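User: My advisor, Dr. K., asked me to get a structural model of this assembly before our group meeting. I'm new to this, so sorry if the format is off. These are the inputs:
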Amino acid sequence: MDKSLTKVLVVAAVLAVIAIIVPHSGSFVVLLTTRAMAFAILAMSVDLLLGFTGLSSMGQAAYFGVGAYLTAVLATKFHFGLGWDFWLVVIMGMAIGAALAAFFGLFAIRAGGVYFLMITLALGQCVWGLAYRWNSLTGGDNGINLNGRPNFGLDLSNEVTFFYLVFAFFVVSMALMYLLVRSPFGQSLAGIRERELRMQILGYNTWLHKYIAFIIAGGFGGLAGVLWAHTNGHVSPETVVLTTSVDSLLMVVLGGAGTLVGATLGTAIVFGLREYLSTLVPWWQYVLGGVYVLTILYLPMGLMGILIRVRQRLKSKTEEKSLKELATKPS
Amino acid sequence: MTGKLQKILLGSCLALGLGLTTQVNAEELRIGYIAPVTGIFAQVGKDMVDGFQLYLAEHNNKLGGMDVKFIVEDDQGKPDAGVTKARKLILQDKVNMFIGGLLASTGYALAPVSTAEKTLYISSVSSADDLTQRQLSKYPYFMRSSWTSSLPHHALGQWACENGFKKVIVIAADYAFGYETAGGFQKAFEDCGGKVIQKIWPPLNTKDFGPYIPTFKADADGIFTTMVGPMALQFPKQLRAAGIKTKILGSGVSYDEFVLPFMGDEVIGDVSALHYSAAIDTPRNQAFVKAYREKFGKVPGYYSENNYTTAMWIDEAIKKAGGKYPGPEEFIKIMASIKLDAPRGPVELDENRNPIENVYIKKVEKKKMFGYDKDELWNSVIKTYPKVSQFWTYGKDKFLAQPVYDRDFPPCKYCE
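Assistant: The format is fine. Below is the predicted structure of the whole assembly, which you can bring to the meeting.
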């Protein structure tokens, strides 16, 4: 069987299992999974930059934030996006995320490495500053409360219905990003990640490639923000704060950059520890810290690295076996 | 390989899904408590929890005859995390009520959860003004056992005016709590005839006031400050080091017993206002301070007192309800009918579900108190304003007609 087809099937099977199991578990688990999935879209958008293009963005929360604030402001000030027009808000959220990325990209893409990281960090902080200080629009430090979720025939105030909606968005986003990275465009991004100079010599406009990837990631960030605003019905500067960007980056590194599934896995683990384990024990932060340290020390490829290693070992074992068989066979 | 992985994942999903339903005991009062137990506010969060638990420990873990299941959840000082935890408490732990929330922003985020889930929320610290003012009607299952940010500072404005202050500079942390405290002070102070001549908003967590201090107008005879966290320690030190001797009129939290032990002698003589001081010289408060200090090794600040009082209030209410929890609406009615004799003095609920309570104008003094043998800094009470309402002397309707205190309200008429 084709290797990538197997991968897709495994992921699809796991997703199907989640879709069946989660709604039947406790309602807090439903809530957590919904939140994690909305956030995982953001993490995957970071992976698009970090894992596939080699750009470590420290400002991804900005696009997430504008998406969330757009949803909240439209819903509270204009009562917009609470019926079928929710779908318009989704499109607008993606558009505003992409537009902001298009603007920020003009400044950020020129730089690489640490400089790119610092510029995106600074730009992200600008958005945080706006959210924090533009009291009349954003409610400042107090944030904005949304009054209920959209209802367009489907009543999203039902947690399970909302879970399925976020789940659908998550699956579609993952599929789109997967197709994107497998496309010729995605291949050239990987080329840029490996050696930008070589791509330039080959005649690729690497700036444009990176710029487009940056915009696409911004769009997915905006989408994640729209969904996030509705998970808790609350948007505050905490949504846009630097920690959100750092978290998304760490999740990707933890799960394994350049795999998309890794970003999701990382999100699941961080959410599991931060929001579930923290309800059980007070020392959850040590566990989270320990996981990070151990991953970076022993699994530079992230948790997905384990799978790769296991596969390699299995492969080498079967090879050894067949070699042995060959050796013992009388010729 | 694939099959094995699927099995493992399926197994772990099942494990996660099972064993989460909670057995609810009918005789048990289930209380969820939300506080920042980790993060930069962890210490405050601990004081909050300690206050509540002291009361529980003193009463064999019973409130009004019901056994209490007290579940603490960590909001990490983030409103969003607070909402998730509140919903966890309601959905998974099936709590009767949830209490707590430190920051004003957390209060604003938690109140809608109480409406959506029809569960009682008692804000025992968070002081965001508007929750019990202009936005009250949105939150029928919400009440407050603490204070509104502007409540003690109206009184401080009045006191400053009556005690000869004419021109005051306001310097307060740049966020909602800073606006509301400063707004309350300015409103009452100017209505009585004083003038606020300058307003400065340093960002939250400013550690270096060097750029601000030289801009202070020289003709001021007082400085009103709202400093939180490390700002509270740094500001008086740097102000006095710069040679400025202008008197300080502080927000109560800038001089709360939470920070007071870490302050130097430069704060002696500084005046502040709050609805609690550990130095209130009543037997009720003395007993509380001694019990708290014995158990936790420190003098309680308002974070602890407010939660101790909340537990006491619930205790009385459950007793009155006949040893059972009567549901949120009925419970709030009972809470409103109780007049409490708390360590902070008499407390009762106004019609907007916010406490009417004493406000203490306090002066920092170095002295011995309650029989402790060392000289320590205490917030000596120099004047008590009894039974202060969140509407001060303006009356509810007149007060609610004005907008909530903000960066630009009240406007600075005398700032040139």
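One thing worth pointing out at the meeting: Residues 157 and 186 of chain B are 6 Å apart (CA to CA).

User: Perfect, thanks a lot.
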